[in-house]
Amino acid sequence: MKRENTASVSAAKAVIYIVCILLSIMSVLPFWIMFMNATRGTFEIQRHAVSLLPSTHFLDNLNILLGKSFNPMVGFMNSMIISTGATVCSVYFSSLTAYALVAYDWRLRQPFFTFIMCVLMIPAQVSGIGFYQFMYRLGWTNNFLPLILPAIAAPAMVFFMRQYLLATLSLEITEAARIDGSGEFATYNRIILPIMKPALATQAIFSFVGSWNSLFTPMILLTNQERYTMPIMVSLLRGDIYKTELGSVYMGLSLTAIPLFVIYFLLSRYIIAGVALGGVKE
């Protein structure tokens, strides 16, 4: 009986490992193909769209990319400024709002949370025209501020942070901090934020990726080429000569995707630590 149980457990583990390996390959394969196509010529891509091996046209594609209006350094810096600023604002203020919804008992707490959930259902495209008109009257077109400051209001992130605090935060900690004379913001910055590291890292990844890949709002606000972000520059590769130079298009896409991998690998350890901490929590 014990041998049968051991064999069934081993078989279940083998199936789980196989499924995880297949899912990992399926997740990585599209990015690998994109990077490989960045080293291939247009004729090779048109002849065989999928290739798992690199070719010899990397420098040719890079020269074509840099020889036109595409300036990856300008786009990279613009996207980095916007994405970093939006991520910091959204993560900090969303976690602060979630903390207020959990740690304080005030009369309109539940209606306020309901209002946040209602705002979550409104798509950004609905308010696009009004938002542009408002920014135009303020003189904030071709400015990074309209792409950073609205990130302070992130309903989905507030909901995630609130659920995380409900499961992990012990209100006795905040009460003990108040007894010791700690101010509210000091308590939040020194005690609550370290507790929320896994949630902050998770939402920082999503916020950075969403802001980095954003095209709709930057496209309607930024008209100066010196202010273009990476997604805008990549979207322009589909016109003119780049319509046939597919290798340079994949090169631009690869340059756009690289920072996202860096951010994920920098923050993923906090997510793993949070999962491990939750697994041993009593």
Summary, kept brief:
The chain has 282 residues and is mainly α. 74% of the residues lie in helices and 0% in strands.
What is the domain tally? 2
CATH topology of the largest domain: MetI-like fold
Output the radius of gyration. 24 Å
Q: How many E strands?
A: 0
Which homologous superfamily in CATH is the superfamily of the largest domain? MetI-like
Question: What share of residues is helical?
Answer: over 70%
- N-C termini distance: 33 Å
| CATH level-1 class of the largest domain | Mainly Alpha
Largest sheet: number of strands, sense, barrel closure:
none
Helix/strand order, N-terminal first:
HHHHHHHHHHHHHH
Task: Count the DSSP helices.
Answer: 14
What ranges have pLDDT less than 50 throughout 5 or more consecutive residues?
277-282
Question: Which structural class is indicated by helix and strand composition?
Answer: mainly alpha
Write the CATH architecture name of the largest domain. Answer: Orthogonal Bundle
| Spatial shape | flat
Strand content: under 5%
Instruction: Give the averaged pLDDT, no decimals.
Output: 82
